Amino acid sequence: MERRTPAEIRRTMAENRGALERSLTTLRGELAELKDWRRQVERHRREVAIAAACVGFLAGALLVPRRRRR
Q1: What is the per-residue pLDDT for 1?
Q2: Nearest 5 degrees, angle CA 41-CA 42-CA 44?
Q3: CB–CB of 33/39 below 8 Å?
Q4: Distance of alpha carbon 59 from alpha carbon 68, whole angstroms
Q5: Spatial separation of the C-alpha atoms in residues 49 and 25, rounded to whole Å
Q6: pLDDT tens, residue by residue, 28-65
Q7: Chain CA centroid to CA 34, Å
Q8: What pLDDT, in 10s, does the model give residues 17-37?
Q9: Cβ distance 34 to 40 under 8 Å?
Q10: Would the pTM count as exceeding 0.70?
């Protein structure tokens, strides 16, 4: 195993810290975009319309009393 000097270790740690900060910044941006529900609805308008129709159909089917056959 190669021995590193304390300066090399500090430099590597600083590089890793910088990479981690960049990754966290990117992740925060992506998370903010995912949490923006208005943007998600706009982006997936067709899927939202289909889901709303399905929920409406199921709610109507559950709320309407059924007739008994004699």
Answers
A1: 72
A2: 65
A3: yes
A4: 20
A5: 33
A6: 999 999 999 999 999 999 999 999 999 999 999 888 87
A7: 4
A8: 999 999 999 999 999 999 999
A9: yes
A10: no
Rounded to whole angstroms, the Cα distance separating 19 from 16 reads: 5
DSSP 1-70: -----HHHHHHHHHHHHHHHHHHHHHHHHHHHHHH-HHHHHHHTHHHHHHHHHHHHHHHHHHHSPPPPP-
Cβ distance 28 to 21 under 8 Å? no
Tokens of 57: 């159909």
Structure tokens at 59: 């709610």
The tokens for 48 are 């939202």
